[in-house]
Amino acid sequence: xxxxxxxxxxxxxxxxxxxxxxxxxxxxxxxxxxxxxxxxxxxxxxxxxxxxxxxxxxxxxxxxxxxxxxxxxxxxxxxxxxxxxxxxxxxxxxxxxxxxxxxxxxxxxxxxxxxxxxxxxxxxxxxxxxxxxxxxxxxxxxxxxxxxxxxxxxxxxxxxxxxxxxxxxxxxxxxxxxxxxxxxxxxxxxxxxxxxxxxxxxxxxxxxxxxxxxxxxxxxxxxxxxxxxxxxxxxxxxxxxxxxxxxxxxxxxxxxxxxxxxxxxxxxxxxxxxxxxxxxxxxxxxxxxxxxxxxxxxxxxxxxxxxxxxxxxxxxxxxxxxxxxxxxxxxxxxxxxxxxxxxxxxxxxxx
Length: 351
Hints:
single chain, mainly alpha, Serine Threonine Protein Phosphatase 5, Tetratricopeptide repeat, elongated
């Protein structure tokens, strides 16, 4: 009898524990999920002519609607334009091209369709067709700033600089808030490439003044201009401003490394160059600058290893000329290293 009472008590106790557990897990609040941590080391496309976040090189985003004061677009055509732009933005270039062409058979004077198709042709590097379409867009609407900007950019890519400057300035005049940043950036690039550094600095300054999205690229380009002018303190500040705004900007880290080297900060120079190579191991500018820094810091073996890793690559002619001049200077300053430096020069890539 006593055993039976004991079993009953144990059974009741177990049931109470089970019921309490069910109540707790069913009605108690779930623990808050830990927020996902941002991956700051996500791989980015780099070692390209312009960084991934740069709006200077890409075409202006095609507008989907007619600006104020322009005759409204028929609903059917409007829907097709929006579809064409969506196709383009999703990487379906040929489908977008076909759709814009179809629109133009139905509405031969539609400047938005000409601009959209010109954008696709620009991406395909069919610059003659792009110029024809942007020109048609301008003829259909002479106050359409996007087509002036886009045509100006294509002219820049073709080194038709006078025409490029005129179109880019027209885009700024028509829509300064929208194109003050991008168009002035392109104007600065034109002057920089022509060796007109004062005009480049002026244009880049205007671009930065209009840089409401706090982008990085114009700081890099202005840093390149200051480097060409041998104003390394100013260059260092701009390269630093670029990497502060775009943490994976390998080109800016390479420029920062060279500027730090010229200032005499060898440790900081190597740190910046190492960061450039972490982001983009094939960044030849960073590799070449690393050779110079290693020799200047008294590490010829490290320089030899860096030169060996460059075998078979190609280098920007400006960077290569800069590095060769630095190596000649270092050889003159340290005659005992001249032979090793000559050996390294023979290993450098062709421009």
